[in-house]
Amino acid sequence: MNEPGWHDEIDEVEHADNHLARMIAELGKRVLLDQTLIIVTSDHGMPFPRVKGYAYHAANHVPFAVRWPAGIAKPGRVIDDFVDFTDVAPTILDLARISHAQSGMQPIAGKSLGPIFSSRRTGQVSSDRTSVFVAKERTDVGRPHDWGYPIRGIVTAQFLYLHNYEPSRWPAGNPETGYLDTDGSPTKSLILERGRQNRADPFWQLNFGFRPADELYDLATDPDCVINLAENPARVAQVKKMRQRMESKLKTLGDPRMFGRGYVFDEYPPTSGAGFYEKFMRGEKPPANWVNATDFE
């Protein structure tokens, strides 16, 4: 890959790796390494079409490495349990023997990874870790009224199901404001040019065109999430089942989208760039240095 900023990102990864190596070396000098729980993970998805600003597998399936020789039984095991970021806080509280009430934190949706660490089993350790839930509201500005592109999804061992709650909106951001959810790159520029020549171009459609309300992908055969099985009449029952499973869980978590109050997310002011769309359409030039000047249509 030869994208602008790609080498900068490699440098950043190497910089982080070097600092992690220094911390590990220091823990070793203090004879604390084996007793220290080390968790290394990452931000969601790279700034690339169909990754940043979306909810496909490449946007959500991120590295999550844990080291704790004194606390993880039978190292080298391969387990199939699903874990996510929400599990980090309850894990640390659990291992530190701090109750949720003592922590002063807001309610926590995740669960401690302690039982997985202490188990000696392989495969599926916890019967309730067979899926994870993903969600998106707003990742950037550039739509009218600062609206986002709300998505909810559920990931299982084989399938990814996504529901787009506002399919009439542009998923990667509006064309006239440069599809701001996706950073600028030669790849983005090439796909946009194909789309300008032919809006039916499959690459433009997949990356920047409107999405249907329901999307279903077989991760075993299609990890890049290209073939939407939800459009297959034979999959109607499966789509309905996965949506019901997803929404049942989200209702227990009090997700406003499940109760017809999704507008509350659109009403939250952006932390920066508020009113970008309206300013741009008035002829102002608000900063958008993460995309190319040719991205604007």
Explain this structure to me?
The protein is an alpha+beta fold. The chain has a single domain (34-295), classed as Alkaline Phosphatase, subunit A (3-Layer(aba) Sandwich), CATH 3.40.720. Helix content is 31%, strand content 10%. The protein has ten helices and six strands; from the N terminus they run αβαβαααβββααβααα. The strands form two sheets. Strands 3-4-5-6 form a four-stranded antiparallel sheet, covered by helices on one side. α6 packs across α7 (202-208). The longest helix has 24 residues, at 6-29. The chain is globular, with a radius of gyration of 22 Å. The two termini are 26 Å apart. The mean pLDDT is 93.
What's the gist of this structure?
By secondary structure, the protein is an alpha+beta fold. Helices cover 31% and strands 10% of the residues. The radius of gyration is 22 Å and the shape is globular.
Structural class: alpha+beta
Query: Main sheet: which strands, in order across?
Result: 3-4-5-6
Extended strand count: 6
Task: Identify the CATH architecture.
Answer: 3-Layer(aba) Sandwich
What do the pLDDT scores average to? Answer: 93
- Give the domain tally: 1
